[in-house]
Amino acid sequence: MMENAWFIPLFPLISFLILLVFGKRLKESSAYIGMALTFIAFVYSLLVLVERFGNPTFKQEGTWLTIGEFNLTAGFEVNQLNALMLVIVSLVSFLVHMYSKGYMHGDERFPVFYAYLGLFTFAMLGLVISPNLLQTYIFWELVGVGSFLLIGFYFYKEEARAAAKKAFIMTRIGDVGLLIGMILLFWQVESIEYDEIFAAVEAGAISPGMITLTAILIFVGAIGKSGQFPLHTWLPDAMEGPTPVSALIHAATMVAAGVYLVAATFPLFAASEAAMLTVAIVGGVTAIFAASIGLAQTDIKRVLAYSTVSQLGYMMLALGSAGYVAGVFHLMTHAFFKALLFLAAGSVIHAVHTQNIEEMGGLWKKLRLTGPLFLIGTLAISGVPLFSGFFSKDEILIAAWAHGNYVLFWLAVIAAFFTAFYMFRLFFMVFSGESRGESKNVHESPSVMTIPMIVLGVLAVVAGYVNTPWFGTFLGDWLTEGTEALGHGHIEGPAWIMLVATVVSLLGILLAYLMYSKRSIARDWFSSRFPFVYSIVSNKYYIDEFYQVSIVYATKGISLFLKFIDDFIVGGIVNAVGSGTKGFGKTIAKLQNGQVQLYSSVAFVGLAILIVILALTGGYLR
Amino acid sequence: MSSVPLSAYLTLALILFCIGLYGALSKRNTIIVLISIELMLNAVNINLVAFSRFGVSANITGQIFALFVVAIAAAEVAVGIAILISLYRNKRTVNIDEMDSMKH
User: Fold this and answer.
1) How far apart, in whole angstroms, are the C-alpha atoms of residue A383 and residue A310?
2) By C-alpha distance, which of A251, A413, A235, A241 is closest to A337?
3) Cβ within 8 Å, pair A600-B25
4) Contacts (Cβ under 8 Å, ≥6 apart) of A110
5) Do A594 and B99 touch (CB under 8 A)?
């Protein structure tokens, strides 16, 4: 199976092409084509993963282009990380395909939606089996295109258009870093193969400064894609897309591509202490920063978006603290529980037709399936023991502590508290108490939407057990098998960390319960005492406004100036030449007045002048 | 026989040509213009015949050429009159100033 792993991305590509051509005729039955082909991709990925357990890494490449001495190769590679990512991506994609059949029902551009989903899935699956940086970069951009198309799916809405452009431009800023890093690496190593780059790093062929520089530049690409501070602002805005898209792209897969990239180039990072520290700091700061914004949002999807940013920060913190396994592990569990949360949120939105949590409430009795599933996701992300998020978050905290990042460790603990608090705030606001909205016939979503949620709900509970300190660290051992550069499968840490994490998350839940369900603490207890802090947080630290007045206005100013030059100086010269010629022609044309005698007079006078000249000069002009 | 010098013929031709040119360029009646053109052609004929008699290598070619010019001039004036009559039927005028429809 592994020899043909490159078939896997082709299935969604076929789905994309079929729906592109026949979508109009297929109408809503295009969902079956998308589902069938992604399901094949998922089964294939699963078989590849199972085969990978018993076999070594498989890699195959062919020459794509030969430029001088240099052979540009293209191919695919199935190592542990890639095999795992294949399964995660294809599974979540399949479930989202299925869910969308219910969620997008009745939409005019239904087949187009499925076509875009196919394109995105193709790009994402292609990304995770790339054996070299250039191929990664190509798929990296394709993934961005898929994200752009899907965020802007409701392009008739002003916000959706703006969000799509913002997402594309913000991630492009990061991509420039990645591109420069890639070029620098090629300049140093004369190769873009991951294996050869790692070999060169190990052999000391690259100077330490250059390693740090290239690692940080690659990390800049990851910052853009994974919505890390300071390029995080596009991710919450991307929630303008349809909810299944948010679940697939902006929670489970594409935003995790940044984490994946850092994980895939981990040996490069591991060789530079400064680069590792940068990753850890950016991750830790993002984790607490986004979590604090999430405390004050009132849009159900935006709360989840900020929690995504925060959880991605956790993953970066783990990778930056040499916790390779912890980062990848959290990437996996997060993909499941965050996709679950988004799909459940979509189900809620589907039922009440609003995204504002102030207008929800009392949905627990009405949504008998969505409610418990949302609770499972909330418990998992809050790090309540026995759920998947608990184990992965615990690994991250241990990694941060063991690597000596004590400040970042405590930041992460506070962020965990925030996470538990705002997630349960969300849960209680939506599901407990009395209904505050106006919608009357609230009903549970169809089974085509609930089945994917149930699958993800089960995974959100059990996915953590593949790597626990109690029953063995199977995932970690497998991921780091046969290599030294990735660190150990399990990092030993003090036992009290697990206790602290549990206590912190339970405290957050308790506080949310007291404030939003039992109401023994007034909701505005904090905001009325510290209105200044509250307004900063609820306005997302004014980052968007800051970018608006600094970068956007500056860019607009420069473009206006250049437009002025183009319009008046360049355009002026061109227009002057044009109108001058035209005016001259017009004047001359007046001579053609239809008077034959005038013409012959002019001809005669001309002839006379010529003859006079001839007579005076003898035919030679001097 | 040869008491009249070449210069006299050429002067006559020159005067005739200039009269013709003046008529062709300044008269408003198109018939007069056509007649003036005939005058210019005849001035040329005088030149041709004069040179066939007094030229450096005097021969009969000039006179034959003059006959051709006369024949073609007859044809030309026939076509010219035909066009003019057709124009007159359409425009009710033979005034050359008013025949200016071919302009920018």
Assistant:
1) 14
2) A251
3) yes
4) A27, A28, A30, A31, A104
5) yes
For chain A, counts of helices (H) and of strands (E):
27, 2
Q: Flag if B103 and A592 touch (Cβ within 8 Å).
A: yes
Subunit contact A601:B103, Cβ cutoff 8 A: no
**Residue A622: predicted pLDDT:** 60
Q: How far apart are CA A171 and CA A176, in angstroms?
A: 9
User: DSSP secondary structure string, A176-213?
Assistant: HHHHHHHHHHHHHHS--BHHHHHHHHHTT-S-HHHHHH
Interchain proximity A593–B100, CB inside 8 Å: yes
Nearest to B25 among A592, A594, A601 (CB): A601
B41 confidence band (pLDDT: 50, 70, 90): very high
Higher per-residue pLDDT: A134 or B14: B14
Cα separation, B104 vs B101, whole angstroms: 9
pLDDT confidence of residue A578: 94
Q: Is the pLDDT of residue B1 over 60?
A: no
Residue stretches of chain A with pLDDT short of 70: 1, 437-440, 482, 484-490, 621-622
CA distance A390 to A502: 8
Residues ≥6 apart with Cβ < 8 Å to A118: A12, A13, A14, A15, A16, A19, A34, A37, A38
| Per-residue confidence (pLDDT) for residue A621, from 0 to 100 | 65
Q: Inter-chain contact A594–B24, Cβ cutoff 8 Å?
A: no
Any bridge partners for residue B29, and if so which? B95
The whole-number pLDDT of residue A547 equals: 82
- Spell out which residues of chain A touch residue B97, defining contact as CB-CB under 8 Å: 595
The predicted-structure confidence for A62-107, as pLDDT tens digits, reads as follows 888 888 878 888 888 888 888 888 888 999 999 998 888 888 888 8
Best of B32, B94, B103 to disrupt the A interface by mutation (most A CBs within 10 Å)? B103
Q: Which residues of B touch A589 (CB under 8 A)?
A: 104
For residue A596, which residues of chain B lie inside 8 Å, CB to CB?
96, 99
Q: Give pTM, 2 decimals.
A: 0.77
DSSP labels for A282-297?
A: HHHHHHHHHHHHHTT-
- The per-residue pLDDT for range A329-355, each reduced to its tens digit, is 888 888 888 889 888 888 888 888 778
Q: Cβ of B101 and A594 within 8 Å?
A: yes
Does the pLDDT value for residue B68 go beyond 90?
A: yes
CB A83, CB A52: distance < 8 Å? yes
Q: How far apart are the C-alpha atoms of A325 and A472, rounded to whole Å?
A: 13
- For residue B20, the distance in angstroms to the closest alpha carbon of chain A comes to 13
Q: Do B100 and A595 touch (CB under 8 A)?
A: yes
Residue B78 has pLDDT above 90, yes or no: yes
Identify all chain B residues contacting A597, using CB atoms and an 8 Å cutoff.
Answer: 24-26, 33, 96
In the numeric block, which tokens belong to residue B102?
């071919």
Interface of A with B in 586-605 (CB under 8 A): 589-590, 592-597, 600-601, 604
* CA–centroid distance for B41 within its chain: 3
If phi > 0 it is left, if psi is from -120 to 50 it is alpha, else beta; for residue B102 that is: beta
